[in-house]
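Fig. S4 source data, part A: sequence.
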Amino acid sequence: MDSIISVSNLSKTYASGFQALRNVDLDIRRGEIFALLGPNGAGKTTLISIICGIVNPSSGNVLADGHDIISDYRAARSKIGLVLQELTTDVFETVRDTMSFSRGLFGKPPDPAHIEKVMTDLSLLDKADTKIQALSGGMKRRVLIAKALAHEPKILFLDEPTAGVDVELRRDMWEMVRGLRENGVTIILTTHYIEEAELIADRIGIINKGEIILVEEKEALMQKLGKRQLTLYLQNPIASIPAGLNGFDLELSGDGSELVYTFDVHGEETGIAPLLKLLNEHGIDYRDIHSSESSLEEIFVSLVTEKR
């Protein structure tokens, strides 16, 4: 699959001397949903701002759909739609007018049919002639996306798109994102709701201290780094783990009532059967068992912690 965004050896050092990005290489595939994760201050916003032409890089190159963001700025920027967290439009304009104005800014001829289709897709058509100041917070967020799509970009950046949005609207928004992907739009999102990246992304990129530390297919990442835990709720608390169980990755809760066994879900043998046999031999009975697999959030935290 070809790349629609290519970032090569990109660095950014601000006038204060702070180096926000260090030799970043990143290729984003055409038509994918790519989630960029990282703690606050990791460089996410700087990277997006450079790709979108808002911030100049100190060194390196970026191509957006084959156009250099510096030497061919207008063509590169016309390929990109950007949805920021904050409302960045005239609240006294109507939804239809702000979309039409945004389309004109990119040199696109008027196309009422396209504007209407975007509003329909985002459930905004009944608000077309409503002033933005009169809309709810969730509807304003939809307007930001509609405005970013007005000039028919091939690439859409969503910066924390569901921050502060209720659960129902968040679900609707992800359905809309999937629909955009089906129509050929490449989606790059940042989110603090890591479960959303786990739910919707095709690939995950993790950035920390200005460096890309991992880019991986979501499913492959989960398989490669995911672990499963078996929690045994004991019939009677124990003071310590018997020496005969030292060969297992076990952790005892503070009150001695729970025993947690961690194992590789992809290993040839889980070790569960031998563990349960040994527990029985040591007279340790359990009243319940619960199995859980590590989440993307746990994987993310472990990766960032390792790189510190």
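Fig. S4 source data, part B ends here. The domain at 227-306 is CATH 3.30.70 (Alpha-Beta Plaits).
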